[in-house]
Amino acid sequence: MSSLPPLPPPLPTAAHPRPATKPPQRNGCLIALAIGGIALVALVAILAALAIPAYQQYVLRSKVMAAITATHPLRNAIDTRLAQGGECPGSNIATDFKGMQGVERVEIGQLAEDSTRCVYAIHLGGTGSEQLDGRTIWMDRAKSGGGAWNCRSDLDNRYLPPACRED
Fold first, then answer.
1. Is the pTM of this model over 0.70?
2. Domain containing 81: what range?
3. Comparing C-alpha atoms, which of 118, 126, 147 is closest to residue 66?
4. How many CA atoms lie within 13 A of 50 on its CB side?
5. Are the beta carbons of 68 and 150 closer than 8 angstroms?
6. In whole angstroms, how far apart are CA 162 and each of 75, 131, 157?
7. Is residue 12 part of a domain?
8. What is the CATH number for 158?
9. Does a structural domain hold residue 80?
10. 7-36 pLDDT tens trace
11. Which string of DSSP letters, residue by residue, matches 81-126?
């Protein structure tokens, strides 16, 4: 029998040209990214519009509180004087508030409308704020009985500590 001839070697395969692949479409991603960026800018603007005025108000309140706190030694001196003699001191109590930021001058005496109360007035100045400069905070207490100090002012309530606010 005759044997069959060996099979020829396989033919080299011709490379089939692949169709050109299209780059992935990213138009939707770019649009979403642009919208997200715009939303982020709007959110930051809204937060800044709320935060900046609140911060400025906080700074003014802290200046008022610093002026009140700076005069606590004066309050203690008046308390001591009242405990010893029962009279409101005049401006003869040594006060040195020069250089204290926010305090222009302090006046000591008694209330004109009520001679049973001692008072000192803190005149604000040099704060750099037209809402505070030229305004006054009055601290008063009864001459006798070791009463608590009361506070009142011609400032807007939002700049005053809670104890000084009018309802």
1. no
2. 60-164
3. 126
4. 5
5. no
6. 19, 18, 8
7. no
8. 3.30.700.10
9. yes
10. 888 777 766 667 677 766 667 788 888 999
11. HHHHH-S---TTS----TT-TEEEEEEEEE-SS-TTEEEEEEEEES
